[in-house]
Every structure is written in C-alpha cells, then in structure tokens.
Amino acid sequence: MDNIMKIEAKILEKISSHGTVEIPGLVLRGFEGEVDYPKIVAILHGCAVADGLERSEKLEDVANTYAHLHNSDPTTDMLFAEVSGEAVGYSRIWWAVEGSGQWVGFQLGNVLPQWRHKGIGSMLLRFNENRLRQIAAQLKESGQLPANAPCLLDNFVSSTETDRVNLLEQRGYKAVRYAFEMVRPDLENIPDLPLPPGVEVRPVEPEHVRMIWEASNEAFRDHWGYIPDPWEEFERFMNDPDYDPSLWRVAWQGDQVAGMVLSYIDKDQNEIYSRKRGYTENICVRRPWRKQGVAKALIALSLIALKERGMMEAGLGVDAENTSGALQLYESMGYRVVKRSTIYRKLINV
Predict the structure, then answer these.
(1) Which residue of 15, 16, 219, 333 could cross-link 284, Cys pair, CB 3.0 to 4.6 Å?
(2) 249-253 and 200-202 beta bridge pairing
(3) Intrachain domains 9-172 and 180-341 with the same fold
(4) What number of CA atoms fall less than 13 Å from residue 68's CA on the CB side?
(5) pLDDT digits (tens, 9 = 90+) for 239-296
(6) What is the spatial distance between Cα 209 and Cα 250, in angstroms, rounded to a whole number?
(7) CA distance linking residue 292 with residue 282, whole number of Å
(8) Angle 242-245-247 (CA atoms, 0-180°, nearest 5)?
(9) What is the distance between the terminal CA atoms of the chain, rounded to a whole angstrom?
(10) Helix (H) and strand (E) counts for the chain?
(11) Using an 8 Å Cβ cutoff, are 180 and 306 in contact?
(12) What is the H or E stretch that residue 259 is in?
C-alpha cells in the first residue's frame, strides 16, 4: 500500500476534478495507524483558539476514540493533508440510520489556521462527501438500505467556528437545527426535590451498565434525529479516564430503569481552563415515568454529587427545539445558555 492506503483512487480523482490546490509540497494521504494520533492531537489543539473551542484531548483520548469507532473505518474514511511532511489538516466520516429511516453521513474536518483559505478545507470536504455518497450507494446496491431511503450529510458546528460555517454554506449546506451549551454558574441553592413514590436511586453496579445503556436508547427514541447510541460509543465512554459511575444518578422502580443523569468531571479541561466544572449529561426519563418530576429530582441529586466532589459549576448540552421542554427545565434548575451550535445538513442524490 502507498500513502493513500485503502482510499480508492477514484475518490481522490473526483477531488482533483473539482480543481487542484497549488501548494508546494502538498500531499494527500490516508490513515497510517497509531502514528497519526499525535498529529490529530496537535491539529485539534492548533485549531482551538481560532475556532473558539475548548480542547483537552490527550493522546490516550484519541486512541480510545479510534478503538471504539462505529460505521467508520479510518483506513478508508480518513484523509490527511500534509505540506512538506507536516500534517496540516485531516478529515473523517461515519454514518448511521435515524429511527425515521433516513441515512445520515456525518463528517468532521480540521485545518490548522495558518493553512486555511488555500483550498485544503474544500478538498477535505469534497473527499468526505464523495466517500459518504459511495457508502450510501453501496448500502443501497446491497439491499442493506432501501432504494428510496433519503440520504443526508450532516455537520455539527459551533457558532464560533466561522471558517467552517462559511465553507459549509458555500457547499450548499443549510442550518436545520440548533443546540445550546448551558452552564449553571454556581452550585448553591440546589433544591430538595422528591422522586415519585416507589422510585429510588441506587448505586450503579457493573451489571447495571448494559441496562442503563438500553434504557437511555429507549428514552431518547422520541427525540429529533434519534439514532441508537451504539454500544461501541458507550464502551468508549467506559474506557475514558474520567469515567466514574459513582457520579451517576439512576432512578429505578423495581427492576426497571426509570431515568438517569450520567454526570462526569473532565479533569484535564478543568486544569487547562482553571475552573471546577462538572457535567450533568445524558439526562433522560423513560416514557412511563415522565411528567412526575423525575428529571428535576435527578438533576438536583447530580448537582449535589458534583458539589461534594469540589465542583463549583455544572454544564450540559441541549437541543434548542427539544419538544419535551428540556430547555425550560434546565433554566428552571439554574442553567443559562453560554454558546450555540448548529446542525448543517444537505440532501444528496444516491
């Protein structure tokens, strides 16, 4: 194999057919294994300030992510841009099928700020699109995807990533959905809220984890763009250095999971940004237990747990148009919006 690895030459030819980039020493190549992990980390951190993003990834974090990929093969689904042997950008794609039956191709791409506006980002994006189109076509041809299934391309972009926003809009992507990052600026005055009769919080045991994962997938089934969380992603979470189920607050009734808040503390991020923040994430309640105060009670218990660990604030992410009223719920618990992100999407013909 040469430096293109398993990437099919015809995909790279399609990139070139849309115009070449005249940069001396520029080479496009495929993924070369673990030796690329430090380059990924360097590019992520090199983009952070310019894109207004908080980054705390270490080498072990990237290795953990790539050990648990789902519907993404780095040897065919990644492209690196190098200039005179230095990695200056990379991209990766993956895909999933929504509960509605729509096929969605996801993508990411990062180019170091000093190498932007030279056409490299456009080339990476064209590679992503061509590869995703190829995968969708193969799935339809093999019968794994209905011939009439809609095929979409998605990008999740922070409002501070102006270069990425401009690139996507130039390529015909439209904003279809918004999400908010929220922060509760202190952990004072946490309300004492009861759970419904018969519902209790229990310590998480190893044998509970699979049931919690299954209950989470069921609870989120009603949400926009629902895609079952693959077990590989949950395994990645479990292998993260910050994985600490003693922070989780899971409500049970008998042998059934009623709802949950799966909190964590990103220690590296807190050190880098000189703060003490915990995250109250994966907040969900299964349908039989909704509208009984389960979510609010679990959030309150989670905030107390974070405070007991020395945290001084809490964060979470939420779909801005969540039909269950999540935004209003979190505001009532003291969280405030600090940043907006956008899902950019376009339909492709396959």
Answers:
(1) 219
(2) antiparallel
(3) yes
(4) 18
(5) 999 999 999 999 999 999 999 999 999 999 999 999 999 999 999 999 999 999 999 9
(6) 10
(7) 18
(8) 85
(9) 29
(10) 11, 12
(11) no
(12) strand 256-264
Pair 107, 131: CB distance under 8 Å: no
Cα separations (Å) of 62 from 6, 193, 220? 21, 39, 27
SS (H, E, C) 83-133: ECCEEEEEEEEEEEECCCCCEEEEEEEEECHHHCCCCHHHHHHHHHHHHHH
180-341 fold: Aminopeptidase (3.40.630)
* Pair type for strands 277-285 and 256-264: antiparallel
Residue 155: its H or E element? strand 151-158
Neighbours of 39 (CB within 10 A): 18
Give the alpha-carbon dihedral of 98, 100, 105, 107, to 10 degrees: -60
With contact defined as beta carbons under 8 Å apart, do 240 and 64 qualify?
A: yes
Round the CA-based radius of gyration of the chain to a whole number and report it.
21
Nearest residue to 201 (alpha-carbon basis) of 235, 246, 170: 246
Which amino acid, residue 213? Answer: W
**One pLDDT digit (tens) per residue for the chain, 350 residues:** 454 555 665 556 555 544 556 889 999 999 999 999 999 999 999 999 999 999 999 999 999 999 999 999 999 999 999 999 999 999 999 999 998 889 999 999 999 999 999 999 999 999 999 999 999 999 999 999 999 999 999 999 999 999 999 999 999 999 999 999 999 999 999 999 999 999 999 999 999 999 999 999 999 998 888 998 899 989 999 999 999 999 999 999 999 999 999 999 999 999 999 999 999 999 999 999 999 999 999 999 999 999 999 999 999 999 988 767 899 999 999 999 999 999 999 999 99
- Our measurement of the distance from residue 110's CA atom to the centroid of its chain's CA atoms, rounded to an integer in Å, reads 15
Whether residue 80 contacts residue 90, with contact meaning beta carbons closer than 8 Å, is answered with yes
For the chain, the domains span 9-172, 180-341
Residue 108: HSE in the Cβ half-sphere, 13 Å Cα cutoff: 12
